[in-house]
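The methods section describes the discrete structure representation at length, but only in general terms. Each protein is reduced to its one-letter sequence and a matching series of backbone shape codes. I believe one specimen quoted in the main text would settle the matter. An entry of this sort, consisting of the sequence and the corresponding backbone structure tokens, reads as follows.
***
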Amino acid sequence: MSFSALALDAAAQDLLFREARTANTFTDEPVTDEQIQAVYDLVKFGPTAYNQAPLRVTLVRSDAARERLLTHMAEGNRAKTGSAPLVAILSTDNEFHEELPDLLPHFPQAKDMFFAERPVRESSAALNGALQAAYFIIGIRAAGLAAGPMTGFDHTGVQKEFLDDDHTPLMIVNIGRPGENPWFPHSPRLAYDKAVTTV
């Protein structure tokens, strides 16, 4: 099959999508703050509704913080989270609207017009934060690193341990260079004609 209809070259397509997997093992090569900042400085340009930016990233680097996190991981996820060079807790800031006057300077009244009520903010943060989390995972791949995103953890426990009542955990992402036998085989994907409808 030809992929010439895409502007991105085939190697980049493979890196970001076709050859991408959830990593289950990692080498001990460190992941630097500079690498993560480069990832963030790229993916922050991904579009969201009203240019809101609800995603927050908590980097778990210290051994003590890692041990605290492991107590909240599902049993099947502990070993890979324990061995990844870097772990990121991705959460949403349900008070994201406070940043809107700076992020949406041509329409600062959006803060109070659309997001004055907490339930509305939580719903919008969940959708747009998940969108930003997907950008973050692709950004990790663009940096030549492997990502292991997971939702198998005690969300309430992680919130209490690392966040606060204004932040809702979305996922935990193990980050690093892939280690020995890092990938499960690719599972099937839904065919175009089952996923796309023209009306």
Remarks:
- The mean pLDDT is 95.
